[in-house]
Amino acid sequence: MNTLHSNSDDPKTPLLPSHHDTIPRSQSFINSPLQSICTINNVFILLGPLSCIIICLCVDLNGSKLSRNMLAVLAWVFLWWITEAVPMPITSMAPLFLFPLFGIASADHVAKTYMDDVIALVLGSFILALAVEHYNIHRRLALNITILFCGDPLNPPLLLLGICATTAFVSMWMHNTAAAVIMMPVATGILQNLPASGRSDDKVTKFSKAVVLGVIYSASIGGMSTLTGTGVNLILVGMWKSYFPEATPISFATWFFFGFPLAVLIFIILWVILCLFYCSKGTANALSSYLDKAQLKRELELLGPMAFAEKMVLIVFSMLIVLWMTRSITDDIPGWGALFEGRVGDGSASIMMATLLFIIPSGKQKGEKLMDWNKCKKLPWNIILLLGAGFAIADGVRTSGLAQVLSASLDFLDKAPYLAIAPAVCLISGIVTEFTSNNATTTLVVPLLIQVAQTMHVHPLFLMVPGAIGAQFAFLLPTSTPSNIVGFTTGHINIQDMIKTGLPLKIAGIAILTILMPTLGALVFGTNDPI
Fold this sequence. Notes:
Number of helices: 25
Main location: membrane
Number of strands: 0
Keywords: Membrane, Transmembrane, Transmembrane helix
GO cellular component, one term: plasma membrane
Largest sheet: none
InterPro entries: SLC13A/DASS
Order of helices and strands: HHHHHHHHHHHHHHHHHHHHHHHHH
Distance between the termini: 80 Å
Mean pLDDT: 81
Strand content: under 5%
Subcellular location: Membrane
Helix content: 55-70%
């Protein structure tokens, strides 16, 4: 046996290489580091700075050195984001050193963009979401709603509606990826009562596909309806505040009045598509022997009655929703935020209510609170850093003048009919988002749309909102968004299923947005008014 493959624990193995080795150890020593260096991942790592150098040396943006440097940094960061050569949270911190090095912004200035009221809103929301998850409230909610919608006898379309509606509701109050992660075990727990795909009726297999597709798409759709549902909405609000500080900010309630009707209409289309493709007439008979209301009730009984801690978490969460909805209502009814002369934001309410979780006792053990910092170790700092990077890049694109330069590439929108602008922008954003993250798409596209809106003399939100919403129509590929990956890894669906369902859903979403933006959008955001 070759000594290169001998057991190192064998006492007879020589400590030094012997001359009998068929391959010299020196050569093995040389080859090993080379093999670890010459990898595809390292090639992707080099692509970032290499593209930055090429742009700095070869690109001339009308003599603007600052715009060129910003484009170079943008290429570096986005290449690392797209290829994931470096972990996304680390890439998200790259502007903290790249901006000062390339003269785009000072270290203090870029660092401040990583923490504002929007980030505070996210932090507080995530802490509350962790409390909901810790006390298993999401599972109790899911089982109750599923029992309500199950029907007697079994009604598969109604059951599918219940699962999807529950997911969409949960996704309204936490990040859509977190909602998918929380709800997928609930969905697959229901599917565990069904036989495996290889040994089941075709109708059972189709229903399993419908449930998984329904969860991942409902998580994305539910996230559209509120500011806390997805990072895209938060990026949009942050950019609006950054570019137009004197304009009326987009509050939680303002976005909800537009986002919720939009999400409801798209959700109905999703349910119809799933029923048409995956719920045939014989589905109820095929499922009835495996799935019934009694089984779901037994699972709910195993959870026991609601404890004091669960009730308090729900009360705190409900209070936060009320505070979000009533901080700023209308011009005639200003909301409770007027009491503080506009100094408080949605992030203030979010952090305040999250703080209560560390003060209110849990009722389980003496001195134990509803939450402690150990329970917060799962906070998704990657998403928080990604949001901060999005705000930093948006600020850099604006201050460096790069937005004005790049907006020239979208000058074809100047000639587009007024009513065709929203679908055109949504389509562009919807295509880009299939190949990169929703947040990255929004960070790249929205600053350009702001500049285009100014050259077209239209309200910026008339382009910004379709651009941001379009970035959330990531329905075709598993890698388009993390929530899609959550569903894809269950093994119940494949890419063909996603394209079959996602393509008509994307088209329907663009059509609905085309109708709502010049009508409801004009009413809610005032896009017919000058800014």
